[in-house]
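Hello again,

I reread your note about wanting to compare the complex against the isolated chains. To keep things tidy I'm splitting this into two emails, and this first one only covers the full assembly. Below are the input lines as submitted, including protein chains and any nucleic acid or small-molecule components. They are followed by the predicted structure of everything together. The single-chain runs will come separately.
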Amino acid sequence: MEDSIFREKLRAFIVEDLIRDPGYPLKDNEGIISGGLMDSFSLAELGVFIEQAFNVYIPDPELTVANLDTLDQIVARVQQG
Amino acid sequence: MLTLANRATFATLHHAAALQVADDTPAIIFVATGHEPMIINRRDFLANVIGVALSLREIGIRARDLVVIAHTQDLESIYGFWGALWLGAIPSMFPTLTEKLDPDVYQNSISELVRLSSVSAVITTDEFAPQLHSLLPCPVVGSSRLAAARSAATLEQTTNLSIDPHEIAFLQHSSGTTGLQKGIALSHNAALNQIAAYSEVLRLSDDDVIVSWLPLYHDMGLIAGFLLPLIQGIPLVLMSPFDWVQHPVLLLRAIHEYKGTLSWLPNFAYNHCARRIRRRDSEGLSLASIRLLINCSEPVRHESHQLFLDRFAENGLRPDMLGVSYAMAENTFAVTQTSPGCPARLDIIDRDSLEIHRYAKSVTKDHPAAQIRVSCGPPLPNTEIRVFDEAGHPLPERYIGQLGISSNCLLTGYYNRPDLDPFQAGWYLTGDLGYLADGEVYVIGRSKDLIINAGKNIYPQDIEAIVNEIPGVHAGRAVVFGVLDEREGTELIAVVAEVKPDDTEERRDIARAIRQQVARQTMVTVTYVHLVGSKWLLKTSSGKIARGASRDKWLREIQQKGSG
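Full-complex prediction:
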């Protein structure tokens, strides 16, 4: 799957389901948790979504704010498989 | 073990099993994602506690001094708390600095607390100690300084304390920044009366193992998930709340691994676990050892219990394991508790009668306005509950009013605030609305605008004050309220603010600033930001913003949008 497809699917999930503001213009390098857009509970939700949507399992020790705070970071981790 | 029968033989918290018996039995097992568990036996626990106590004494801390612990939730903060107690000083756990909080805002709130409560010392992390040191008039001690004294500690060292059981043992801090936080002062007597009565109701025994992810600055975490096991001498499996929210399976693994029997969770945690623990992570984990999982600290939702049961039945979870407690820091902790082994009673009532007549009329489940209410159980044996109307008169069964408490585990008062009397004719009025039916307590909501988000009490005024400072927002023209969310099983936070610009880009920047500033300055995240033009918000007859009416207007607009 291309980077842009991952990216847009993730962006849509984050703004619709996690930030709950479908019109939110989420930037690629914007701190989603550190910037207060969603709380750290949502990391667990992100883990579930990534497994369902892309069949990529991110183990708990990697599911951290430091690793997955921006769309760029999340896309890069999903692409690792 | 402390019981109601032998209560008289325990004078102060210094009789806690963790301070009396130095053997190889595990006192605390600290688990963390990606790390090996740390098992602290009672001998090591006591040595560490005494070491901290000696360090504190060295910097001049004496009995009855207030010691604030502003630390990450780990073993250091635990030794800090018990070390202060060992000296007869008064410890108080302060919330932890998180990734999203602004360190300056956090430091300022500690400074305020130190100034207002005459704090004698602050225990913090090594990283944070230098910054705090430059701000505070009292000693600031980093973890490594406390650790250095531990080697000098021997178990023979005693405290020679002459603390009276009526004296203050520790403080729990109420949430809220506006109008200043209040330190809820609890005596040794209150804490021991609570633990004795609560242990009896829980039928606590030496076979129990408590598992907790709860923060120690919260009553549920501090009393049920910390003091109770250490006083009673049963193992505590503890983890950091920040680790748990990101990796909820950690709780299930801990229950499985250590055969946990008791754990306390706010309502949102049932939804969080059910929805966000991946199946491959929970496969093979057994919850069969559980005696009771106790839903506490926010309104209990039947749907959340059902979701949790459906998800984890395959792991051995049964309906009789799900209990409920109604609790508050002012009563040390528990006010009520359902019986172990019996599912919480359900009361089916007429929603219309509740709203119109303030009466919880019992109906059958096929009634068109049927609503299920979950019982919080009967009061503890040392606690009496009455329901009062607005004039302060007691109400009969099933009538809705404010819940009042009388018990022997209530607060002594608010620390350093002799001007505030928490009691009215001997009763503590909780601010919670509810009713009594067949001797059990049902909590309906709050009499004030308090929002309970994921177990945390949030005052809307605190968030409104932050939003009002944001450029572009009409000063004084922002309103904050909670919106119950079925998916999350808790209230989410909504902000409606009147703004000057019509420009979409400018509005987006304002919305972004609102989310960022609230995140940096509080413990919560805003879910809904709705920006409106002038004169959108509704006012009361006295000219104040009408929070409830504005909330209803917003909900109507959202519904129209959804259906249109």
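For quick reference: DSSP finds 17 helices and 26 strands in chain B.

B.
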